[in-house]
Structure formats: structure tokens, C-alpha cells
Amino acid sequence: MMLIVYIFLLYVIYLMPTFFYDRYVFIRIDVPSEVYGKLMFADINIADVFMLLVLFYMLARYRTVRVTNGLLITTLVSIFGFALLFLNGYDVFVYIDSFVYLARCIVFFVITSYIFSEKNNISYVVKHLLIISVIIALVSVMAHYYMGYVDVNRWGQVVEGRVNALGMGVNQAAEFFAMIFLIVFSSIVSEDKDSFIVKNNPRLFLATVMLLSIIMVLISGSRRVLVLLIAFVLLVYFLKHKGIRFRYVLLWTLLVFSVLYYVVDLGSVIWVLQRFSDNVTIDRITKFLINAEMGLDIYELDGRYDMYNSVVAVLKENSFGVGNSTWAIQDQIGKHGFGSHAHNIILQFYLMYGVFFIFLGYWPYMAIRKRSMHTFIKYPFVFFFVSQMFGYSLWNLKIMFFIILMCVLIESNDHSYEE
Fold this sequence. Notes:
Elements: H1 2-15, H2 19-23, E1 25-27, E2 44-45, H3 46-62, H4 69-87, H5 97-116, H6 121-146, E3 150-152, E4 158-160, H7 170-189, H8 196-199, H9 203-220, H10 223-240, H11 244-264, H12 266-274, H13 280-293, H14 304-317, H15 326-334, H16 345-353, H17 362-369, H18 375-387, H19 397-411
Helix pairs in contact: 1-3, 1-6, 3-5, 4-5, 5-19, 6-9, 7-9, 7-10, 7-18, 10-18, 11-12, 12-13
Domain O-antigen ligase-related: 209-356
Membrane topology: Multi-pass membrane protein
Subcellular location: Membrane
């Protein structure tokens, strides 16, 4: 019964369009007037109420609270961030977005810990996550190709042709589906104990998941995710299949691109990419390379350079960080440029938690170091943190819950699902 309720919760979270979080709420929390285009949805909505009901049900059944080292570390770091926010003069009862997010994350973490503590539950949860990804992908692809999809982001900017996947955000949608792809791909090519994904799912279904995931990355317009996904696919395959044939393929591939880039010219690479310029992601990569070839400002199409300059200016004024509120950080960055996040997880975490953010390195450290860690968790998790060097996606609830799910798996000592 608990597993059914939890899986239903996942469907509610992932299939509910994001605008529900903003329009259909039980308690409205006003955004400070100086914040332009809120990132965090702090309003209490139907998903929050449902999660609390599920938590109370599980507490009544187990009569214990599951607290792990990772949950304790993350909570303590967050509390320091709230203290930093207060010391910097912000009203913690107004800039309350991160407090609401922390409460949501703790509730979801505890619920997921209960679910994963029971035999075989992980296998069922992963299967339904794959099903959810297929549903989201099909809806998004049909919206993109049959309804002339045009996304308008929270700042009122038109992002034509870049799929938002039920409100995840274009880059966040790309990261989500890249991780889904890596879950399946790493399970297929590996020979370790996580083969339950292959055993418990038809091959046609897994192929469909991988194909739709690639399509979603391509129509998201996210350049960094596409490039990183290709790199991680090569990495996973190379680590799992160390045969000499693949090494030759890899070397020849690098040689061909080296010849195109250094011997011929950058225009040859651009010419190849332009054959696929109908795709929004490849088209954005092509424009980036054309700017580089023409000697123009390669940051003109991206904006991260100006954003990083704004973050540096904020750090000069707030050497110890701003505090645990994305709204407050948006306020500070907005004084020097465009009010958004830092577009880098290290910079963002420093602004939120000060030097104490280093303790959050516990999660990637455990994912990489833990010998019993399964491939289908390790590679998507590491992929996400590498991607976050060029962006920041944890403001998005759907991505946050997906990462929390993997964090619970990282700390889980129950491997009964291997059988």
C-alpha cells in the first residue's frame, strides 16, 4: 500500500505542470518586490499537502524518524545559511523561499527513505520513473512538433522551439532526460549488480526510453547537456568495455576532430554541424562556433560571462555569502545585472551557505568513493554535478526531488533489490 501511495506521489509531482505550483495554492507567500522573476515557488500547494499526509501515514506505521548523516549535514548547513541571511540584514520571515524548500526536501527525503528500506521497492520506483519520463517526453514532443511549441519563461522572454517539459525549464528538462538516459545506458553496458533495470523491463521499453531521452535533449536547446552527455556515454562505455577495439574507435574519433579543427579549419566543423541545423540544440552550438570563427564575442549568445561578473561584484560586497534564500541572491545579483542565480553550483552554494557549503561535498564524495555504489546511480549523479559547473538547477522542484531520490540511494545500505 505504501509503495502505491509513493508511486502515485511521484506521478503527481512530475506530471503536474509547474504553473499549478503558482496558481493553485492553499497559502500564498508574497515575493519581495525587489525580486524580478521568482525562481523559487514558496507557496504551499496541493503537492505539499499530499506529501505531509503521506509522511504522517508513514510515521504512524513505523513510529520512528529516519535520519541519515547526509540529511543531518545538509540540514545543519542550511541552518547556517539562514543565520547568514539574518546577519546580512534580511527579514527571514519575508525571504522564506529556501525555508519552504528545505521543509519540502526533508519531507520527501524521509518518505523516500521509508520506501527504499523495504525489499524490492527500488526496482518498482525506478521502473515508474522511466514510465513517467516516457509520458513527459511524449507530451513534450507532441507539443513541440504539432502545436508549434513556444516557451515564455518567468521573465517574459520568448524561448522559441526549446521544450520546457511541463515547466521543468529548458536546461533542467535536458538534464533530467540526460540522467534518465544514463540510468538505462549504464545499466545496459555494465555487468555489475544493477542489472535489475534490464531484467525487469522489456528491451523495447528501454530502447524507447533512451530514444525519447535523446530527442528531449536535442529539442531542449541545451548545448552543455548535449556535449556532456556525449562525453559521459563515451566514459561509461570506455570504463565498462576496455577492449582494444573501442580504444581504437575513440582514438580515431579524436584524430578526425583534431584534423577538422587544426588542419582544415573550424569552418569544417561548422559545415558538418550545419547539416543538422534544423535542430535547435545543434543550431545554438553552430552559432557559438561561428562567433568564435569570426572573432566575435563568444559570450554574446550565452550571457554567463556577464552573470559571473555580477556574481563577483556581489561577492565583493558579501565576502562571507548572502544567505540561504534564492530570492535574496536574485536581489543582490539584480543590483549588478540580471537578477537570476549564479549559473554555477559552487558560486551559488557559497552565496547561500558561505564556506560551510564545502560540507555538501559529502554527496558527490559518497557517490564516487562508495565501492558498493551502483552504476545506474553513480554516473547520472556525477553527470548532474558536472553539468552544474555551468548552470544551477536545484531551484527546480522536479529536479530537486530527482536528486534527493538518488541521494537516498547513495546512503542506502539495503541492496535486496539486486536479486
